[in-house]
Amino acid sequence: MVGEAAREEPWTADDAVTMLFAAHYRGLVRLGVLLLHDEALAEDVVQDAYVALHRHWWRLRDADKALAYLRTSVVNGARSALRKRGVADRYVARSSADEQTVASAETGALSLLRHREILEAVRRLPARQREAIVLRYYAELSEAEIADAMGVSRGAVKSHAARGMAALREILEHAP
After folding, report:
1. Which of 20, 23, 58, 144 has a CA-to-CA distance to 91 between 20 and 30 Å?
2. From the DSSP assignment, how many helices (H) and strands (E) are in the chain?
């Protein structure tokens, strides 16, 4: 194994990872495939595990536990990939369910007109209110991120956004 006493000097990260890769890569990929049912994703997870081992080699107290570290990293990486896959699958299922209800051409045209009305109303807002609204609802930034982008406090962001929304309601309610 990596920490054998036959070698007098300590292993470098490069040497250890190279030897571990040659000896255990295929087995770790098989482990990943069994967990993920996807060979390409399993290879990515295993490669990430080796990169993490190389990056944290200096922290490893017992070099003989490097293979256990790799196995644990592969299992944790597979769990993470499965969670991401589950989120993506739920999103696709929800999106495809939404797409099953096809809107009429009139609905699409009315929606486009409404969108144009809203954009025109946003253009009519004062600069700070427009910035706060666009950064919040179009760029989907948090209050802190908006405050940083605008160079104002979070309270000012809240104030600009609230005033902007009130002005938009007023403009759109009185639109022809």
Report:
1. 144
2. 7, 0
135, 150 in Cβ contact below 8 A? yes
Q: What gap in Å lies between CA 108 and CA 112, rounded to an integer? A: 6
Mean pLDDT score across all residues of the chain? 82
Q: Is the model's pTM score more than 0.85? A: no
Calculate the dihedral angle through the C-alpha atoms of 103, 106, 107, 113, rounding to the nearest 10 degrees. Answer: 150
Q: What share of the chain is helix, strand, coil (3-state, %, to 5)?
A: 80, 0, 20
Q: Per residue in 99-142, pLDDT tens?
A: 556 666 677 677 777 778 888 888 888 888 988 888 888 778 88
Token pair 């809240």 is at which residue?
Answer: 158
Pick 103 or 58 by higher pLDDT. Answer: 58
In total, the chain counts a number of residues equal to: 176
Q: Is the dihedral of CA 59, 62, 63, 66 positive or negative?
A: negative
At 73, is the secondary structure helix, strand, or coil? helix
d(CA 4, CA 10): 10
